[in-house]
Write a structure and sequence with these properties.
Blueprint: H1 5-8, E1 15-16, H2 22-32, E2 36-40, E3 46-51, H3 52-60, H4 71-74, E4 81-82, H5 88-98, E5 102-107, E6 110-116, H6 117-139
Parallel strand pairs: 1-2, 4-5
Antiparallel strand pairs: 2-3, 5-6
Length: 143
Amino acid sequence: MVLYAKDIVEREFLSFSPSTSVRDAAKTMAREHQGFVIVTSPAKVPMGIVTEWDLLAKVVAEGRDPSNVSLGEIMSTKLVSVDPSEGIDRVAQLMADEGTRRVLVVKDSQVLGVIRVRTILARMREYIDSVSAQIARAQKPMF
């Protein structure tokens, strides 16, 4: 059984325009228990990502007023993304290589969802357990 990005993608995520204030986004992030938002164009094309770290480092630590700072001002524009048909091994390798905890799943320039490191770790654990059980059954003597 091979796992693909489409098998583990989380389809629910927060998405805002770049003009959204940090304050408004942070309120929603807190209410929804989300550590990031995807910043998208009016056509819903991903433009960037804002994480809880961005809020701390680029707003709070600098003493900026979150009501007067937009997501577009603080977003990271380097997005790591994969096609839905990409294997879970490739997704994990990208996370390690890029040092990111989130990978976007994108098809035709539209974000289908996000794969978070905790999700991929949980699914890999399930996969390893399943493969281990199959190996154990195959190694049992027939008689």
